[in-house]
């Protein structure tokens, strides 16, 4: 048989060869380009809003401590006899914790009846006495120092090192204490910081722009990876909420539940996040209202019409980001741009601030470092360690981008995120933080350093 192809057959053969060559060389790129082309023509997939019935915390009806109503009691200075030595020891921040006393949980020194009852023990710890009910208690109650024998300066030094990224095994070699001592101190300080954040931030934050993201890490007890979800205020750099879990819808709901609890009622920030759609469900479930439309049998949940939320999507090739594009999920692009510009930001949809804050967290908290042996034992320990790291970040560590120029000899004022959020007047030392009483189960009426901030 004689092989005698026609011109057309040769042409078809060459075209097929060329196609196979191009497809093997650049097939992946062409496929992705086609997917993007059709996705752009189709527009982003529309998502169905969720309601509070989908949030595990809203449905469980978890009632966090609510603000105590302002007590209306006669100040002790007006009730007591004018005779006697004037008060010299500052008792602000402390309160009588006897629920039967008239001055229960009042931390204002102008109202409560606390006076010094002397210093005791080797460390000369101050004891306070309530002149109204006669109760006496150490000033360390409700602080991480309660029942600890080690001097305050030593604990403050160790905790500063731990919150600057020194891991526990390195701290053991530097300071010489047993590693269980460090673990216990981190747990105590973590619980204290958790209570402090919960009470200071509750319904107190006004935020213009909030960025959401999650960082990946591991714990010893769990073979799978876990995520730390974070919400960062773009202007004040406050990490207003975090949540450790998997990457499910329920976890996004729990993060947004915390955000919703900490914002001033009826205030709505502009949200931006990466391309994870779980954030959309969390936002729509927590910012909205129940209403009964005409002819409807039951109440329906409607997301707030003022909500503005955009996603920054990243197309990656291996580890490298090849290109970025944004999708507006709630609100409009013009409104988001105008809102961001009104906050003195560039107006571009981005998540740079939360990415930078996540890097700071990885630097400050040793178990979050990448490729480290010092990972936490379980989620509970990691949670408490992050709480302590955040307290240090919020109250003690000045943030470089929040520095402002002032008149006077110092010329610059270094500020912390809570100072920028107008919650605290000045920078705290670690010793201030450790000595602040935040008793469990009792909501004191005021923190001493927060007065006059608004
Ligand atoms: Zn909720
Ligand atoms: Zn009392």
Oligomeric state: single chain
Instruction: Please summarize the sheet with the most strands.
Output: 6 strands, mixed
Overall mean pLDDT = 90
CATH topology of the domain at 52-64 and 195-432: Nucleotidyltransferase, domain 5
Bound molecules: zinc ion
Judging from the principal axes of the Cα atoms, what is the shape?
A: elongated
Task: Report what the structure shows.
This protein is of the alpha+beta class and 454 residues long. The chain has a domain at 52-64 and 195-432: Nucleotidyltransferase, domain 5 (2-Layer Sandwich), CATH 3.30.420. The protein is built from 13 helices and 13 strands. The strands form 4 sheets. Strands 6-5-4-7-10-11 form a 6-stranded mixed β-sheet. Strands 1-2-3 form a 3-stranded antiparallel β-sheet, with no helix packed on it. A two-stranded antiparallel ribbon has the order 8-9. Helix 6 (179-201) packs across helix 11 and helix 7 packs across helix 8 (278-286). The longest helix has 36 residues, at 7-42. It is elongated and about 125 Å long. The termini are far apart. 32% of the residues are buried. The mean pLDDT is 90. It binds zinc ion (2 copies).
Write the layout of secondary structure elements.
Layout: H1 7-42, H2 56-60, H3 76-79, E1 114-120, E2 125-130, E3 136-138, H4 152-163, H5 168-175, H6 179-201, E4 209-219, E5 222-233, E6 239-245, H7 249-262, E7 270-273, H8 278-286, E8 288-291, E9 300-303, E10 308-317, E11 320-330, H9 333-342, H10 352-364, H11 379-396, E12 404-405, E13 412-413, H12 417-420, H13 430-435
Parallel strand pairs: 4-7, 7-10
Antiparallel strand pairs: 1-2, 2-3, 4-5, 5-6, 8-9, 10-11, 12-13
Helix pairs in contact: 6-11, 7-8
């Amino acid at each position: 048989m004689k092989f005698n192809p026609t011109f057309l057959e040769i042409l078809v053969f060459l075209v097929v060869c060329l196609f196979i060559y191009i497809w093997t060389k650049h097939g992946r790129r062409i496929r992705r380009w086609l997917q993007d082309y059709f996705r752009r023509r189709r527009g982003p997939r529309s998502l169905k809003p969720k309601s509070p019935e989908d949030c595990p915390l809203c449905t469980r009806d978890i009632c966090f401590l609510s603000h105590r109503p302002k007590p209306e009691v006669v100040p002790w200075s007006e009730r007591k006899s004018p005779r006697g030595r004037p008060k010299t020891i500052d008792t602000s921040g402390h309160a009588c914790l006897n629920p039967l006393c008239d001055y229960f949980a009042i931390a204002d020194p102008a109202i409560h009846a606390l006076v010094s009852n002397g210093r005791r023990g080797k460390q000369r710890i101050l004891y306070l006495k309530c002149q109204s009910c006669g109760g006496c208690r150490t000033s360390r109650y409700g602080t991480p120092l309660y029942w600890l024998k080690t001097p305050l300066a030593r604990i403050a030094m160790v905790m500063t090192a731990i919150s600057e990224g020194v891991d526990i095994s390195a701290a053991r070699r530097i300071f010489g204490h047993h590693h269980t001592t460090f673990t216990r101190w981190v747990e105590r300080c973590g619980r204290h910081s958790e209570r402090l954040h919960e009470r200071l931030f509750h319904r107190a934050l006004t935020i213009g722009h909030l960025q959401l993201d999650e960082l990946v890490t591991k714990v010893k007890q769990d073979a799978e990876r876990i995520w730390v979800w974070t919400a960062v205020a773009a202007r004040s750099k406050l990490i207003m909420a975090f949540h450790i879990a998997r990457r499910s819808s329920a976890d996004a709901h729990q993060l947004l539940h915390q955000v919703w609890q900490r914002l001033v009622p009826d205030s709505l920030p502009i949200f931006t996040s990466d391309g994870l759609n779980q954030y959309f469900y969390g936002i729509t479930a927590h910012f909205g209202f129940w209403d009964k439309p005409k002819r409807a049998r039951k109440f329906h949940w409607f997301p707030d019409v003022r909500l503005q939320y955009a996603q920054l999507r990243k197309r990656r090739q291996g580890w490298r980001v090849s290109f970025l594009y944004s999708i507006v999920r709630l609100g409009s692009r013009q409104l988001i741009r105008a809102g961001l510009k009104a906050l003195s930001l560039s107006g571009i949809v981005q998540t740079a601030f939360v990415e930078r804050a996540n890097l700071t967290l990885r630097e400050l908290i040793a178990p979050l470092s990448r490729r480290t042996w010092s990972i936490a034992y379980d989620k509970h320990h990691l949670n408490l360690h992050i709480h302590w790291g955040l307290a240090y970040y919020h109250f003690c560590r000045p943030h470089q981008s929040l520095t402002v120029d002032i008149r006077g000899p110092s010329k610059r004022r270094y500020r912390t995120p809570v100072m920028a959020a107008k919650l605290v007047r000045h920078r705290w030392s670690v010793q201030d933080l450790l000595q602040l009483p935040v008793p469990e189960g009792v909501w004191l009426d005021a923190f001493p350093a927060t007065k006059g901030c608004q």
